[in-house]
UniProtKB/TrEMBL annotation:
Belongs to the D-isomer specific 2-hydroxyacid dehydrogenase family. CDD domains: ACT_3PGDH-xct (cd04902), PGDH_4 (cd12173). Keywords: Amino-acid biosynthesis, NAD, Oxidoreductase, Serine biosynthesis. Pathway: Amino-acid biosynthesis; L-serine biosynthesis; L-serine from 3-phospho-D-glycerate: step 1/3. This is D-3-phosphoglycerate dehydrogenase. It comes from Halanaerobium polyolivorans.
Length: 534
């Protein structure tokens, strides 16, 4: 039974899903860091929101952890690099709370324009002051959005319906996406200078850390109001407090904070209740969003622990489910070629893995295929320590160069995948194709063959000599091993030859020894002789 820790508050619906799937669930949102560090080794899966820090120290102790589910969007609290190196799948549920974050942003903008929280607070204190709390309209004003993704684009659409003029900065967005929603893309500086309202909707990255600081506040108009519903570290809090103090800008509405939870001791913005509205990271906290992200995260954790790939992976290439279904035969083909190669090359040290894709297979992303190949080639050495998440990292760590290429050439076949290994004892190459009837191996070390890529094989590479086929056939016959199919390829008469035999049962090591003795007696210079079960 898998153990799953839920270390932040999530909807009960998520916990029910985990339990119904037979998981042993610990719900511990209030756990101390020390307890967390002490117990994390016990868990196969974890679900977090933004409060749990899954940093290097934690992940080093998380010896059994296979999957991290982020019930929400931003994943800056997870050390993705470390999780990847440790082969832990990480996914988020980025669509579950988009609308809630959008609506909270709009709410903050209106509250900021109309002094709603301040007037409410005053009235609760028995103060009626219509002059002090006079607001401004948002109609006709310019809203500058930094980060026009899922949330930013929806904020834009709603703001346009209020009659706002929306502009945006997003260097990574395809310009057509912005054109489609009638939002002109401008430089960061233009947005900062031209906007009455600046709203942040970027993830927290090295580039967006303190994206608004002294310099940017100095560029803003005095009537500018700033909204942050993204991440606290996107704004330099001290610089914002100074800009407010010096009336460089008109106000700010802040949902996310550099230090959470906010306390009077750690946040200078609390000194400006008339200009700064603050909420306690509530952007994604609605009943609907909480249910959505918890259900999605729980279902995905269960699915990944059952050996499926996550739908919104953060550390393996994502694939559209429809595309995945179509590409699956090629993923299976390349995995089979990798399994074959791993057994064929035996204990030789791999220097490089090359894969060449030809024909129809080029219609799909190669990344999942190449990852599957690397995993299958290295698996016999590393067992369950290698998976799709850490395959490239492990290859790199072992000095194995992985190269992929594509070509249109495929002859009469619809698709061909060729795998080449360079080892300390020589080169191996194997090509296969996917046909609706199954997988075929069509080339070994450059020699044409045609065999079903399933079942059990003996493969031998040797110097072409008369009598080899007969000797091997007789030896297998004496051991009562039936040869279902056999193909021999050779470069030239007397040159390097490869024999691939599909057999009906496993030969003993004595049988393999006898074959080797016969081949040596015939002076065939055996390069390798392997039994391969697929
Ligand atoms: N306050 C809350 O409770 C919530 C906060 N969030 C935060 O909102 C962020 C955005 O969420 P989504 O819109 O779903 O993400 P998204 O990935 O759909 O959009 C982010 C956009 O930012 C752009 N971007 C990245 N770096 C940029 C840069 N240096 N300058 C300008 N644009 C840049 C990207 O190209 C992308 O279009 C999340 O990363 C999360 O941190 C999300 C949900 C709830
Ligand atoms: O998950 C949370 O703690 C709140 C929502 C959020 O910040 C996010 O989804 O990025």
């Amino acid at each position: 039974m898998y153990k799953v820790l839920v270390s932040d508050n999530i909807s009960q619906k998520g916990i029910d899903i985990l339990e119904e799937a037979g998981m042993d669930v610990d719900f511990k949102p209030e756990q101390s860091r020390d307890d967390f560090l002490e117990n994390i080794a016990d868990y196969d899966g974890i679900i977090v929101r933004s409060m749990t820090q899954l940093d290097k120290e934690v992940l080093a102790k998380a010896k059994s952890l296979k999957v991290i589910g982020r019930a929400g969007t931003g994943y800056d609290n997870i050390d993705l690099d470390q999780a990847t190196k440790r082969g832990i799948f990480v996914f988020n549920t980025p669509t579950g709370n988009t609308i809630s974050a959008v609506e909270h942003t709009l709410g903050l903008m209106l509250a900021l324009a109309r002094n709603i929280p301040q007037a409410n607070q005053a009235l609760h204190n028995d103060i009626w002051d219509r002059k002090k709390y006079q607001g401004v309209e948002i109609k006709g004003k310019t809203l500058g959005i930094i980060g026009l993704g899922r949330i930013g684009s929806r904020v834009a659409k709603r703001a346009q319906s209020f009659g706002m003029n929306v502009i945006a900065n997003d260097p990574y967005l395809a310009p057509e996406k912005a054109e489609n929603i009638n939002v002109p893309l401008k430089s960061f500086e233009e947005v900062i200078k031209e906007s009455d309202y600046v709203s942040l909707h970027t993830p927290l990255t090295d580039e967006t850390y303190h994206i608004l600081s002294h310099k940017e506040f100095a560029m803003m108009d005095q009537n500018t109001r700033v909204i942050n519903c993204a991440r606290g570290q996107n704004i330099d809090t001290a610089a914002l407090a100074k800009a407010i103090e010096e009336n460089k800008i008109a106000g700010a509405a802040i949902d996310v904070h550099e230090e959470e939870p906010v306390k009077a001791s750690n946040n200078p913005l609390l000194k400006y209740p008339d200009q700064v509205i603050m909420t306690c990271h509530l952007g994604g906290t609605t009943t609907e969003a909480m249910d959505n992200v918890a259900i999605m995260a729980a279902e995905e954790v269960v699915s990944v622990l059952k050996n499926n790939l996550p739908e919104s992976p953060l550390n393996i290439p994502a694939m559209d489910p429809q595309e995945f279904i179509k590409a699956k035969p090629y993923i299976n083909l390349v995995t089979k070629l990798g399994n074959f190669m791993a057994k064929w090359k035996g204990h030789h040290r791999i220097k490089s893995i090359e894969v060449e894709y030809a024909g129809e297979v080029n219609n799909y992303s190669h990344k999942p295929m190449t990852l599957s190949l690397v995993k299958s080639v290295l698996e016999p050495i590393l067992d369950d320590r290698i998976n799709l998440v850490n395959a490239m990292h492990i290859a790199e760590e072992r000095g194995i160069n992985v190269k992929e290429s594509q070509t249109q050439h495929k002859g009469e076949l619809n698709n061909i995948i060729t795998v080449r290994l360079n080892t300390n004892k020589g080169k191996y190459s194997l090509a296969g194709t996917y046909l609706p009837i199954g997988f075929r191996v069509i080339e070994i070390n450059g020699l044409r063959v045609d065999l079903d890529l399933s079942g059990e094989f003996i493969i031998v590479t040797y110097q072409d000599r008369p009598g080899v086929i007969g000797k091997i056939g007789t030896t297998l016959g004496e051991e009562n091993i039936n040869i279902a199919n056999m193909q021999v390829g050779r470069q030239t008469a007397g040159g390097e030859a490869v024999m691939l035999m599909q057999i009906d049962s496993k030969p003993s090591s004595e049988t393999m020894g006898k074959i080797k003795d016969h081949l040596d007696a015939l002076n065939t210079n055996v390069k390798d002789l392997s039994y391969i079960a697929m």
